[in-house]
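User: I'm putting together a teaching handout on how sequence relates to shape, and I'd like one worked example. Could you take Acyltransferase 3 domain-containing protein from Aaosphaeria arxii CBS 175.79, show the sequence you're using, and then write out its predicted structure as tokens right after it?

Assistant: Happy to. First the sequence, then the structure tokens directly below it.
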Amino acid sequence: MAPPRDANWIDGLRGVASFMVVCGHLCTSFVPWLHQPALNKKTAPHLFQLPFFRLVVGGRTAVALFFLITGYVNSIGPIGRSRSGNVDGAFNGIARSSLARSGRLILPTMIATAISWFMAQTNAYHMTKHVDATWVRQGWHRQEPTLWKALTSLVHAQISTWTTGWDEYDGTQWTLHLFLEGAMLVYTTMLATALVRPKARMVIFGVLYLYFWNVGITQSVGSIKGLNIVVGMIVAELHHHFKDSATSTLPTPVPALLIIMGMFMGGFPQDSFGNARWSDMMAKTMRAMTGRDTDIRRFWDHLGASFILLGVFFSRNARHVLTSPVFNFLGRVSFPVYLLHNTFIKTVLTWMIYLPSAMNPPKNEKGERMDLQRGSPAHMAIAILLFYYILYRSAALWVQYVDPLCAKATNAAVNWALGDAPTNSSGPPPHRNGTADKHVLPA
């Protein structure tokens, strides 16, 4: 069993982001109209279409937070060693971490894909094909007719996740190859700046930020990955600059204001910006700063998540909340929650919501079969609560049993590659701030 990880605010923030992703996908499945700020220009918005409240569908902002955290966690060790003059230690740490990163990310993902593949081949997704929730129905995968086709489709899915970015058995894994690329971007930058002064490194970060801002104007990958990774590294530099005084550096209201501004920006709607005055103004503002064909949603996601991270970094109260046992638990299980939630939505949740309709399939006047209908609001609420319990309970078991196996396999491969003697540890030691030197996903 893996040793317990120390409570820290970055774990709590990661847990919040993971929870937001699940909420966002549930809303996309059953109430996709919440992605609009209002149904039309003449209709009053629903409560959860308003700023701040609409963060329940803020899965895109949560993804930006994951990239920010990846940049922060993976750079904080090398930056600390570089600042202390331990350049050899920085290089050694970068070399070991860059080798271990792939295993720590790819092995759990392969297991999650194999689980989804097994569900498909046992026809567990059969009901998914007939539900009235479009997003869930799009996740359906057929049961392959032969064992050979099933095995080849599994191999193809495992490879394409890291090449094309698409996993046919779990579409939510499209971000994972970007997280791996983001981690390597961190290590490359740390390698290039290990010998420079902190001020020079901040200048380099600034240049990288401007570069990725311009890349993001024409390619969304720049705003999804590059901008957030760079800001995460900037916050890691600030961590070593301010040390324990970070939470007393700014006047008390300022961090809270940063968080509030971040929550507002992170709530920029995914669809139909012009249906509300506030989102229309935000769209016009970002268009002026980018371009007509830019995916401005990703820029607002980035800015919102960055402001939230900075606000939490400088806030003693926010850090205190995020280090509570509840948030620390959410952080520990965040990666398996991300890996498993889509499979559980297409199986456990779908079964609970649509079983009554499946027992008596609806038909139209011509006798043709119609989509299965969801249950009553009370039925839905109970099913979703049970879904969350099953998901987080399964994620806790994953952390207890699966993660240590993946860590041991990765450590064994790294030790073999480096010629080191095997260790009994199931994971690398924590940084001095208590954050484990491992991928922080979703990832």
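A couple of points you could highlight for students: Residues 1-6, 423-443 have pLDDT under 50 and may be disordered. The radius of gyration is 22 Å.
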